[in-house]
Design goal:
heterotrimer, A mainly alpha (about 170), B mainly alpha (about 400), C mainly alpha (about 200), A: about 170 residues, mainly alpha, Methane Monooxygenase Hydroxylase, Chain G, domain 1, 2 domains, flat, disordered C terminus, C: about 200 residues, Four Helix Bundle (Hemerythrin (Met), subunit A), 7 helices
């Protein structure tokens, strides 16, 4: 019976080989001239903030994963029953309905508690916290060709004054 | 009806010729996938262009049919960048985790073979009888589910390892979306297993040989849920929040360039083809269809299969050109509060009908009772949803008032 | 051939397990764990327990480790943890003692109980025809073991309730202290306006 999986392994090897060979070919053909700007995290031309991008996320994402485990296990119990439900008859049906009811009940609790509520945000935040004083147009926008702006490009207020003069 | 649930080719002694045929099948499946991805990308661009009243790709080859090939070759010549904050190992690993499951899940799809009139769907190649699918393990469909759960890692780790904001946001959205809809997908499949009595794909197809497609016998609802959940699982429009350009640039593969990007793209379209093929296998009878000319009998099932898959591919493209993108809360509400409870209820109803039929109960009695029970459950669910909505609306009202005072 | 498959998957499992312990980055640990689970799934296939193999991947790799990765990446625990801090005092020596004793028990059982490992397959596997495996499992689960199945449902319910209780803020004070303050100010202002 194990031999039934031989073609799957063959296909696996073929797929991995294909991907690996593609990488090698691309490495041979493609130019390689990395620089700081190319390697910087993409933020639409803005110099990335210093903070760690792995910030915290709403706990709902975690709840979704948690609830998914519960439903996944429920589904896994359904599959063997679905295959044998005719031979199990009424007894099996009652057993499954009880099982499903228990899970459904927890589902209702979950929804009633608002754990799967993604709608309007509950938090009322003061408005001015959105605007950061340290990050403004003069120190985040990268002006290509005017002068080199490094990661720390904080010395730019002068330049923004120059720009203002030009524009006015 | 005989369910073989294993490929006769590999059940016998494995000699040189058997291995040769097996490898031939693997290579054909591989080539078929690659060529069809090429054509599907062209097909999608052309159809969407027609629907937008544009020309679409038209320069490379006749009707621009070689456009995908040209794009692919171009990507080989592009610089491959590694973002400075990336986790180097995982960043390199993620495309494999996306591509390999995409290849493997096609292995269980029967693309041809005559299952009608007592046929077991095998064809004869060089004196060996074999099924027209790469592998037919007894838990076929579960293999597909397992691989699609591995594919979540590809998306998730691609975004995480980039060390950048947009990819991380995209991958978090994508993985939460994929696992949410995987539950609905799994539940809608369970209804099919009530009728097939097996998890093997060839068994499921041979159970639908006499025009008794599961589409009808499961009562349409699981099929509709499967298609919606499948679209969401593929991150296709209208569920493409993963790569919502206006807010997330390119989603989880923003930082990927060159061939690594191409592999993600390839995996995405392969998954689209496989999902269509699985839908056809589960609900539309797979390669079953009328054999019109007896002399070339083996051609017809393959033809029917491809026509059915094409219908799905066209639907996916059509959806993309028609529907606007959902909001994230709408997406989650649709998955958790509608599709999952609906498929759960429908599964139990159909199962009760089947058992009632065996025990000689009157259908006129079971259906109303089942519907009453289900509507009670729906009312309860609705109450819970209302309660949750009310409490969050309450908070929203307060914020409105305070904003008004600020002004 | 079976020996070869066994040796390869054993190597995959063990290297994965070592990787879980020794990698510095928790996300890498989670990935190594997926590798281990995958190897175990291959062992299940080898034992012709195909359904178990599939759900091993679907449930463990596809749901539980996904949850781990979610927690690691989303809650921002992935910065290098300080190994010098011991979360519960006395935890580490206790872990060493427990681990060693479990290893000892397993070793003793292997050597003493059956006269050492023979490497032969158990005579009565698999149950029935290997393709029918899932069906037979379903019949066993929902007849002989039906009580355990229902207990599982109870366990799942408890898990959901626990997750919700731990992760949502208490519902009673719907308006947090900050909001409450604002709300009080708001009411004051409204009153003042009314007086005017």
């Amino acid at each position: 019976m194990t031999s039934q999986y031989l073609p799957v392994i063959a296909l696996l090897v073929l797929a991995v080989l294909f991907a690996a060979i593609s990488f090698v070919v691309s490495r041979l053909l493609a130019p390689r001239s990395p620089n700081d700007r190319k390697q910087a995290p993409y933020e639409c031309g803005i110099i990335p903030a210093e903070e760690d991008p792995n910030e915290r996320f709403p706990v709902r994402f975690y709840l979704v994963a948690m609830i998914f485990i519960v439903f996944d296990i429920e589904i896994i119990f359904f599959y063997p029953w679905a295959l044998s439900h005719r031979s199990l008859g009424l007894f099996g049906l009652v057993a499954v309905v009880i099982f499903a009811l228990a899970v459904f009940e927890s589902f209702i609790y979950l929804i009633g508690k608002g754990a799967l509520e993604w709608g309007p945000n509950k938090q009322v935040k003061p408005k001015d916290s959105v605007v950061s004083l340290t990050r403004n147009t003069s120190n985040t926008i990268r002006r290509v060709g005017v002068r080199k702006v490094g990661q720390e490009g904080r010395d730019l207020p002068n330049q923004s004054v120059e720009n203002k003069e030009v524009s006015s | 009806m005989m369910i073989i649930a294993s490929d006769p080719l590999l059940s016998s002694d494995i000699g040189f010729s058997v291995v040769a045929i097996m490898l031939l099948k693997v290579v054909i499946a591989f080539a078929l996938l690659m060529v069809s991805v090429m054509l599907v990308i062209w097909f999608e661009r052309k159809i969407v262009a027609d629907m937008h009243n544009r020309v679409g790709p038209s320069l490379a080859g006749p009707w621009g049919i070689l456009q995908t090939l040209a794009d692919g070759i171009k990507l080989f010549f592009k610089e491959d960048l590694l973002p400075e904050r990336a986790d180097r190992v995982v960043f390199r690993l993620a495309p494999y985790l996306s591509l390999v499951p995409a290849f493997l899940s096609f292995a269980i799809v029967p693309i041809g073979g005559d299952f009608t009139n007592g046929g077991d769907g095998t064809v004869s190649i060089f004196g060996h009888r074999t099924l027209l699918q790469v592998a037919d393990p007894p838990v076929g469909i579960l293999l597909f589910l397992a691989l699609s759960s591995i594919a979540v890692y590809g998306v998730m780790l691609a975004g995480w390892s980039s060390g950048s904001k947009y990819p991380l946001l995209g991958s978090v959205r994508a993985s939460a979306q994929m696992i949410s809809y995987e539950a609905a997908l799994g539940l809608s499949m369970a209804t099919v297993f009530l009728f097939s009595g097996t998890l093997s794909t060839s068994g499921i197809v041979s159970g639908q040989a006499t025009w008794n497609w599961n589409l009808v016998s499961t009562g349409f609802i699981p099929f509709i849920i499967f298609v919606i959940a499948g679209t969401a699982e593929l991150n296709r429009p209208p569920f493409d929040l993963v790569e919502a350009e206006q807010e997330l640039v390119g989603g989880f593969h923003t930082e990927y360039s060159s061939i690594r990007f191409a592999l993600f793209f390839l995996a995405e379209f392969m998954n689209m083809i496989t999902m269509s093929a699985i839908a056809v296998t589960l609900f539309l009878g797979g390669p079953n269809g009328p054999i019109l000319i007896k002399q070339i009998a083996w051609v017809w099932p393959i033809l029917w299969f491809f026509l059915k898959v094409m219908a799905f591919l066209f639907t996916f493209v059509w959806l993309r050109a028609t529907l606007p993108r959902l909001r994230y809360d709408q997406l989650m509400d649709l998955g958790w509060k509608l599709l999952i409870p609906a498929s759960l209820g429908w599964f139990l109803l159909i199962a009760a009908l089947n058992i009632g039929e065996d025990r000689g109960w009157s259908t006129f009695l079971i259906v109303p009772i089942g519907l009453i029970v289900l509507s009670l459950a729906a009312l309860l669910l609705n109450g819970a949803i209302k309660k949750a909505k009310d409490s969050s609306l309450h908070a929203a009202d307060l914020s409105e008032i305070s904003e008004g005072v600020d002004q | 051939m079976e020996t070869v498959v066994f040796l390869i998957s054993a190597a995959v499992i063990l290297s994965g397990a070592l990787g879980v312990i020794f990698s510095k980055n928790p996300v890498h640990s989670a990935l190594f764990m997926v590798q281990t689970l995958f190897g175990v799934a291959v062992l299940f296939v080898l034992l012709e327990a195909t359904f178990l193999a599939a759900i091993q991947v679907i449930v463990y790799a596809g749901a539980i480790v996904i949850l781990f990765v979610f927690v690691i990446t989303l809650l921002g625990v992935d910065r290098a943890e300080d190994l010098k801090v011991e979360p519960i005092s006395g935890q580490r020596p206790l872990a060493v003692v427990l681990g060693a004793s479990i290893f000892g028990i397993i070793l003793t059982v292997l050597i003493v109980a059956v006269g050492g490992p023979t490497g032969e397959q158990v005579a009565n596997t698999p149950i029935g025809d290997a393709s029918d495996n899932t069906k037979i499992l379903g019949e066993a689960l929902f007849s002989t073991h039906v009580f355990s199945v229902e207990l599982t449902a109870l366990l799942l319910t408890v898990a959901v309730v626990g997750a919700v209780v731990l992760s949502t803020r208490p519902t009673k004070p719907l308006i947090s202290t900050l909001d409450k303050q604002q709300n009080d100010n708001l009411e004051d202002e409204l009153e003042e306006k009314g007086e005017e």
